[in-house]
Amino acid sequence: MKLQKITPYQLFALIFIFEIGSAILFGLGFDAKQDAWLAILLALVGGVVVLLIYIWLYYRYPTLTFVNYTTRNLGFLGKIISHGYILYFLYIAARVIRDLGELTTMYLLPATPLLVINLLGLLIVGYALYLGIEVIARASEITIGAVYAFFTFILIIIMFSDLVKIENLLPILDNGFMNVLKAAYPQIVTFPFGELIVFTMIFPHLNKKNKLLKTSLLSLLLVGLTLSFISALIYSVIGGSAMSCTFPFVCVVRLVNVAEFIQRFEGSAIIFLLAGGLAKITLFMYAALIGFQDIYKTNDYRPFLLPSLVLVLFLSIMIAGHLAQHLEIGLKIVTYYIHLPLQIGIPLIVLLISLIKRDKLKDEELDQQ
């Protein structure tokens, strides 16, 4: 398959939609209570550092994906680790489709089996993956405006519906700075910011290499500010209930009632949440498929598409018996034992080894590629 190209703006849109994705579903940082918004901004600093590691690796290997330069620096061990990353991408895709399935059964289709909902979602993802990254990127370029406009409208409506109570956000740092720090690290750093590891498989598609740093950082900063504002808004509306509500953003939207005329927006909000989540799943699976293509030196990832979809569907049902268990695994196990080593530990080791070996793609290697 010929290497497809994306523009800087398309990369900006992909990062934004990917990061917002399922993060907006659950709300972030509510362990810090009214300082959740501050915890997100604090975690954003760590997210920027993690992104800079990925960009540094890209500058050393501008035509290679993460699995390529991991194998190049770590040899046979690197190939084993690369297979681990493919499974990681597929596993997180399964977790996100499970999130969306639970959301749909809770609010839209309570009588529909989770398996059926997940299958329908993956059929959409599979079609997008079959078309390729250029089509996915063009879709995100169109979608980002609609998504941002819709959520801006929703947030304005919330602010003008007498739901917001600023006193819920006061006093700032009432529980101390350490409480905010614990809410930010490592939970918010790894989810959603550390999930940008996916883009180490996508950066080589960028058609203007010199725009990568600016484009990525601007998109990430917009994501951080947006999530921080949304968390503040949620807590200002429902206060401490945000910690017990499974999908706090939906809980807030359900309360909207302006003059008994503008109300019942949760259905529309959920549809947009589903669109963002499906985009996230698509990119996780795309990263896995490109990993298969690179490791096995094939020209097309499509032969791996159907088996990957089946595996993700199977995992989405089997990873947990119920929603509470699913969320507990995500918070207590995935963060510490999967996200941290794969998002930060191994990329940092690969970067350090490449610096010690002074290994990077030379001009003649770039010409050959």
From TrEMBL:
UniProt xrefs under PANTHER family: SPORE GERMINATION PROTEIN A2
One Gene Ontology CC term in the entry: membrane
Keyword Membrane attached: yes
Any one Pfam family match given in the protein's UniProt record, by short name: Spore_permease
Taxonomic source organism: Haloplasma contractile SSD-17B
Location of the protein in the cell: Membrane
Annotated protein name in UniProt: Spore germination protein KB
Domain of life: Bacteria
Membrane-spanning segments: 12-30, 36-59, 80-97, 109-130, 142-164, 184-203, 215-238, 269-292, 304-324, 336-356
Stretches assigned to coiled coil: none
Family as reported in the entry's similarity comment: Belongs to the amino acid-polyamine-organocation (APC) superfamily. Spore germination protein (SGP) (TC 2.A.3.9) family.
Protein topology in the membrane: Multi-pass membrane protein
Keyword terms: Germination, Membrane, Transmembrane, Transmembrane helix, Transport
GO biological process: spore germination
Main location: membrane
InterPro entries referenced in this protein's UniProt entry, alphabetically: Spore_GerAB
